[in-house]
Amino acid sequence: MVFKKWWTLAMAGAGCVAAWSAGARDLTLDDAVQRTLERNTLLQAEGATATSLRHQATLDALAPPLTIGAELENVAGTGAVSGIHGAEATLRLGRVFELGGKRSARQDVGAAQVARQLNVVEQRRLDLAATATRRFIEVVAKQARLDQTARSLALANESRKAIAYRVQRGRSPDADLQLADLAVIRAELEREDAAHELDSARVALSVLWGQQAPDFEQARGSLDVLPEVPELAVLVDRLRGGPDYRSFELEAAQIDAQERLALTSSKPDLHTSLGVRRLEASDDQALVFSVSLPFGLSQRSTFAVEKQRAERERVEARRTEAQLDAYQSLYGRYQELQHARHEVETMRDRMIPVAEKALASTQAGYDDARFSFLQVAQTRAVLLGLQIEAIDAAARYHQLLADIERATAVSQGLTP
Domain for residue 273, yes or no? Predict the structure, then answer.
């Protein structure tokens, strides 16, 4: 599978938004994708279906079997044929000779069915790789959010201690200490909420490879690096090389094979048999040969061919609609991606620095008794909110990137 992995560069190491130390039980993005592709039960089921179709194709490609039969005539009658005195026993060996290339046509149909299922396996692999990527990104984002809330709680506790000291010295009113207590409680709730969301995200990731309890400590990656993507026109060209487009080509190929099989049914098969007959009355033996051809098959073949042609029209109509939907979806994601990048860069380069300066000024004003602690708390909440929004926007950028990668990925040489 050729998965271009623009996002791998972004998730590879420590970053500014979220940095995590690499430990023995850290999980990388490549590890998450590999585990998912190796252990996911849905993918295993699709692979088993492909194996089943291979066996069915081999079975369908076999020539008609030989038949052996026996007949016993003129027994248990009356008069001259009473008992077994006039019995005639025949042992036959029969075979059907297929005409018109039916066996070859069946082989083509079987090969087309196997090719379609292998393409389904390929689609599932790409789907699961993209899902694992999105959920890995979600874990990294929740880790970053937990880290931010932990720092906010530590800062709230430090502020509460400083304000308690000021209140004891009579430099601040008792109301400031009460507000500081509320800030600590709010920070504790936010940290607890972030911890719960992280636990859920970790489980959502690990179940992709069949584990209910995650066995990794942290997802190692960064949301801070925003990789560039090709121009929209380049991505649109890549759409045509993916398995989603190819699925319609393979379905059309199967319909063509089924049409050829329907055409071969207009030629009748030759049914033959050769046997030996025992004539009990004269104590003699004789060879028996028979041949038969069904007739009236052309009308059945015509109807079957027309059915396949209607199926081809259906596939062509669906292909056109799917291509338009794929372009619209890619275009929308591409625009969202550009907006997410602009949002991250705006908050990181412009809004967060301003909020940090505002907090520093407000804190200095509070120390000089020019501002109330409520103003400090409000400014600090604004900064924390911007930091969380920046994490969410960066995660959204990487997830959109994974979606675009899935839609434009080209894979090769897949076997179940």
Answer: no
